[in-house]
Automatic annotation (TrEMBL):
PANTHER family: DNA UTILIZATION PROTEIN YHGH. Gene3D superfamilies: 3.40.50.2020. InterPro entries: ComF/GntX_DNA_util-trans (IPR051910), PRTase-like (IPR029057), PRTase_dom (IPR000836). This is ComF family protein. Belongs to the ComF/GntX family. It comes from Vagococcus humatus. The lineage of its organism: Bacteria, Bacillati, Bacillota, Bacilli, Lactobacillales.
Amino acid sequence: MNQCLLCQQDFYDPLTFQDVFSWSPLLPTSMCSSCQQLFTWQKNSQGPQCQRCQKITEKQVCLDCRHWQKLYPHYSGSHRSLLVYNPSLQEWFHQYKFQGNKQLAHSFQKQLYLFLSNYKNVIFVPIPISENRMKKRGFNQVEQLLKYAKIPYKNLILRTIESDSQTSKTKQERISGTNPFKLNKQMITDMKDDCPMSFIIFDDVYTTGRTMYWAIETLQEIGEIEINTCSLARG
Ligand SMILES: [Zn+2]
Ligand SMILES: [Zn+2]
């Protein structure tokens, strides 16, 4: 029996064929099936989406992505998320990020592992948070999701500017502004030559894409590399 991280009810978590016969770490399911149904899973969501960022739209490429294509003509990667933002997830993020309940990072560990391990021979790069946030919260909520999902990662991007929370700004403010990131050059130098040159930048939530494109711009300083992006949720 497992205890659900959200409702504290005991539930039965049967071993699947995949658990037994794959090399994946044996991560327990952390939520009962009724709690899992509180969230909108991208794989179950229907309706037309933007091919590049999964925004709900009738167009093949949404307006946000067209804007980014103009600004970053050399970038052709795409964004994928595990969940779609909904009121239950908003409440979850409130407890996780703003009340600092670190253990909640276990909630999606198994699903996140299965989702991200579809990407082979890539290096995962988490979005860094500001030092102020780190002091207040005590942990980087993006890295914590990867840690509990047993996804190895490298902190190739560092934060230089102490920017305020993106959510407290208007859309226009979020879209403009300066790049708060820099490349961790020491770590790049230390990486072996046989390292894969394909990267997945990972964030907790993808909304306008502004943060992600700054991170892409920073990582592209490495040179000719492949970059795609992922997040726990799509705003
Ligand atoms: Zn539950
Ligand atoms: Zn798009």
